[in-house]
Every structure is written in C-alpha cells, then in structure tokens.
Automatic annotation (TrEMBL):
Keywords: 4Fe-4S, Electron transport, Iron, Iron-sulfur, Metal-binding, Repeat, Transport, Ubiquinone. The keyword Kinase does not apply. The keyword Transport applies. This is Putative NADH:ubiquinone oxidoreductase, subunit RnfB. Residues 43-72, 80-111, 153-172 form the 4Fe-4S ferredoxin-type domain. PROSITE patterns: 4FE4S_FER_1, 4FE4S_FER_2. It comes from the Bacteria. PANTHER family: ADENYLYLSULFATE REDUCTASE, BETA SUBUNIT, L-ASPARTATE SEMIALDEHYDE SULFURTRANSFERASE IRON-SULFUR SUBUNIT. GO terms for molecular function: 4 iron, 4 sulfur cluster binding; metal ion binding.
Length: 189
C-alpha cells in the first residue's frame, strides 16, 4: 500500500528537488544557524519558511504582544516571519498564534503537546541566589511543575520540562543583568 506524505515531507521534498544539490547543502544549515525563537507550534524551519505567508496574524492575535515580525534588514529569507524574545516578554503558551495561523506554519500537534520553543539557562554570575541571597522569584513564576527547582537554594533548570516560555526571566528581580535567559533550542550546541 502506498504511504501518503504529510505536509512537512511534501514541502521539504519538493524544495530539495527544486533546489537540487544546492538545496541539499543549504537546507541543513537553516536550522543550524537559527539563534532566534519562533512562536509555539512552529514547524521545522524549512517547512515553516515555505509555509508562512508573512501575514502577521500571529502577531496581531498575541494577547501579550510577545510575537514580533522580522524586518527586511534581517534578510529576505526571514523578512515578515514571526519570532519572539521571551527574555523581554514571556510567552504564555496560549496558542492563539497557532489557532489562527491560516497555513499551519504554526500548528498545535494532535496530542495537544506543543514542543518547547527554547530552554532557560541560569546565569550563575548574575543570579543573586548564587551570591547566597535567598531568592525564588523565578521558581514561583515558572508555570511548569518541575521545570525550575531549587537545589541547595539555587535555581536549576530541568530541560525535560522547561518549555522556554520566559516567565522565569521576566520575573527575575535583577533588572539589568538577569539571572536567567532563554536560549533557542537550535543554538544550544
């Protein structure tokens, strides 16, 4: 019996065919060079870039205004596509962006489990808990049980649970030099 291709396989395969050998070389680098964070539910970068119509609906429906659009100075490949910086405005994972995306470039998986958009990292030199000051603002702000815990009075991120929303970062009482930051998953190496 012939297997049906899903949308991702279809788009990726057609793009690779259209670009030929050059496509085979450049497609793997698209995710490798990404240091920014896409909204929840974003497809693999190559599928996302070919699916996103740059309509801006995701930005318009975001209730916390965390979603922004790249401008032309970011390059033609990224121009008009959405990104967010949970280090400035936390994402609430309300999934309004995915619900309203007309092309499914942002989509909620059938199981309802939206993959992480990034991961929080503790900056020990900036975190006052590492300077022996009792502080647990980030722990209390974290909406995911077990993602951020105190270990001997110091915050510790569990990458199995952290979704990269940024609630911990925006709650940090260190104003100029936050004790945590969220990093894009594809830039963790």
């Amino acid at each position: 019996m012939k297997e049906l291709l899903n949308r991702r396989e279809f788009l990726t395969g057609n793009l690779k065919s259209a670009l030929g050998l050059f496509g085979q070389m450049i497609i793997p680098t698209i995710d490798q060079e990404r240091t920014f964070i896409r909204p929840p539910g974003a497809q693999d970068e190559i599928v996302f870039l070919t699916s996103c119509t740059r309509c801006g609906i995701c930005r318009d429906v975001c209730p916390v205004t965390t979603i922004q659009l790249f401008n032309i100075e970011s390059g033609a490949k990224l121009a008009g596509t959405p990104f967010l910086n949970p280090n400035e405005i936390a994402c609430t994972y309300c999934n309004e962006c995915s619900k309203h995306c007309p092309t499914d470039a942002l989509e909620i998986p059938e199981n309802g489990m939206v993959p992480p958009i990034g991961i929080a990292k503790v900056m020990k030199k900036n975190c006052i808990a590492y300077q022996d000051v009792m502080c647990d603002y980030c722990i209390r702000a974290c909406p995911i049980s077990g993602a951020l815990t105190l270990e001997k009075g110091k915050p510790k991120v569990d990458s199995d649970f952290c979704n990269g929303c940024g609630q911990c970062v925006t709650s940090c009482i260190q104003h100029d030099t936050k004790g945590l930051y969220v990093k894009a998953l594809s830039s963790l190496s």
